[in-house]
Amino acid sequence: MLDTHAQGRPQPASIHAQADHVRLLDVQLLSNNWYVLRKVTLELRRRDGQWQRMSREAYDRGNGATLLLYNPRRSTVVLTRQFRLPAFINGCADGFLLEACAGLLDGEDPQTCIRREVEEETGYRIRAPRKVFEAYMSPGSVTEKLHFFVADYEAADLVQAGGGLASEGEDIEVIEMPLSEALAGIRAGTIEDGKTIMLLQHVALEALQGMR
């Protein structure tokens, strides 16, 4: 379906999703400044068979990948700390979040993307990333699907300083800590990033179940 209100502006990819229980009636482009925000008018067939018309907004920033660096021998993880404006304006006092590495695919496959992002952000060169699952992170409003990875690391895998790309506004602090401390940070509220919580709990469950 075409973006019917995108007059005089470059049009992003159209919506091609189809299903018998959904009728897409109109797609309005609200913003194409940084990423793409659309207002979609649709009819959805309810479970009783009736069709209900509604309008929803969807923010499309592409799909991404995230990875947790984990040393099972020492039971440590590597996280990043960086400023996040949306968190800052929604109650995070200083705007800085502890996170697992992540990045948008931008046309790359997930493994290629996350290898590059991890080296740029942390300085570690990944040896054997393992994909563990995929997830929609905020499906009520954002289209993004994240590909989740875990990779073992050793001190010898550190090949540069990391810190991200200053040209992209990144100023990333690299932090190594015990897995137990990171898990305690979830309980204490010092780790509030969703993807990071998911990966830390995944690694903790694997260790608990003796899967490594």
Mean pLDDT: 90
Q: Could you spell the SSE succession in H and E letters?
A: EEEEEHEEHEEEHH
Uncertain runs are 1-13
- CA radius of gyration: 20 Å
Whole-Å distance between the termini?
Answer: 47 Å
Total strands: 10
- How many helices in DSSP terms? 4
Largest sheet: 7 strands, mixed
What gross morphology would you assign? elongated
Q: What percentage of the residues does DSSP assign to strands (E)?
A: 35-45%
Percent range of helical residues: 10-25%
Structural class: alpha+beta
Question: Which key features would you list for this structure?
Answer:
single chain; 212 residues; alpha+beta; seven-stranded mixed β-sheet; three-stranded antiparallel β-sheet; 4 helices; elongated; disordered N terminus
Plain-language structure description:
The structure is a single chain. Strands 4, 5, 6, 7, 8, 9 and 10 form a seven-stranded mixed sheet that branches. This protein has a three-stranded antiparallel sheet with strand order 1-2-3, with no helix packed on it. α3 crosses α4 (194-208). It contains four helices and ten strands; from the N terminus they run βββββαββαβββαα. The longest helix has 15 residues, at 194-208. The radius of gyration is 20 Å and the shape is elongated. The chain has 212 residues and is α+β, with helices and mostly antiparallel strands. The protein has helices at residues 85-88, 110-122, 179-188, 194-208, and strands at residues 22-31, 36-45, 51-60, 64-71, 76-83, 96-99, 101-104, 130-136, 145-152, 173-178.
